[in-house]
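Here's what a typical entry looks like (NADH dehydrogenase [ubiquinone] 1 beta subcomplex subunit 5, mitochondrial):
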Amino acid sequence: MDLMTILGPCELKDYPTEGPPPRYWQFERTVPQQLFAKYIGNSDLEFHEANLAKNVYDATLIRWRRLDRRVKHLQGERWDYKGFHYRPITTSWIEYGEVLRNRFTKQQEHYGIGTE
């Protein structure tokens, strides 16, 4: 027996102005999708935000790898003696750079804004 036959389709209602706001899983189209979103899976919003974060991370990696290729090309082209001291960029450097950037930009005391 199909779950849609037992529970029926979801009804379209106006957005409630009174009471608590609706949960994310209540915006799914069918009851089985609501149950899946509530108890098992992620919401569409969480899935979208995870994809955005992954895209930003991938774009950062692409930018750093492009820069790395450019540095190696210029070192080979110019016979750069400083190339022996060059250490290639790793993902841990990128993550550490993000941590430092967040630490310095989110600390208001660092800029003297929140100190009293």
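The chain has a mean pLDDT of 77.

More examples are in the samples folder.
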